[in-house]
């Protein structure tokens, strides 16, 4: 895409598109990793990020570990990154469904719905 823009609009447009795409991917990767670290904190009942790193060591340790693991996977020569990405998304979707089914709020809400009269006749 960047090469096509470079051919039609000039080298500067192609370079600008490539830089914007790189920035968007970095922001996306950071957002996913940070939200996963936050979720780990919820699951394990530990402190979330605060103003000081010393107050939320588990959060920052899990964030750093995920960045290191992701960088290691990307650097594997000839790794099937498309398959890895799809597998991770499928796994996350199944965990999300399992979490929704086991979350106490969802269970209470479904029990409350069973008492509500659904017949509108």
Mean pLDDT: 76
Percent range of helical residues? over 70%
In total, how many beta strands? 0
* Number of contiguous helices: 5
Sheet with the most strands? none
Oligomeric form = single chain
Q: Which regions have little confidence, pLDDT < 50, spanning 5+ residues?
A: 109-113
What's the helix-strand series?
A: HHHHH
In short:
This protein has 121 residues and is an all-alpha fold. The chain has helices at residues 2-9, 11-44, 57-74, 81-102, 104-115. The longest helix is centred in the first third of the chain and has 34 residues, at 11-44.
Task: Please give the structural blueprint.
Layout lengths: L1 H8 L1 H34 L12 H18 L6 H22 L1 H12 L6
Task: Give a quick set of tags describing it.
121 residues; 5 helices; single chain; mainly alpha
Tell me about this structure.
This protein is an all-alpha fold and 121 residues long. Helix 1 runs antiparallel to helix 2. The chain has a domain of 37 residues. It contains five helices and no strands. About 4% of the residues have low confidence. 78% of the residues lie in helices and 0% in strands.
């Amino acid at each position: 895409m960047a090469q096509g823009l470079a051919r039609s609009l000039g080298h500067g447009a192609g370079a600008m598109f490539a830089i914007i795409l790189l920035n968007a991917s970095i922001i996306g990767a950071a957002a996913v990793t940070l939200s996963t670290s936050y979720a780990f904190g919820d699951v394990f009942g530990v402190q979330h990020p605060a103003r000081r790193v010393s107050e939320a060591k588990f959060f920052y340790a899990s964030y750093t570990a995920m960045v290191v693991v992701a960088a290691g996977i990307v650097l594997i020569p000839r790794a099937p990154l498309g398959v890895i990405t799809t597998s991770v998304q499928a796994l996350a979707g199944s965990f999300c469904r399992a979490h929704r089914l086991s979350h106490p709020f969802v269970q209470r809400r479904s029990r409350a719905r069973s008492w509500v009269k659904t017949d509108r006749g």
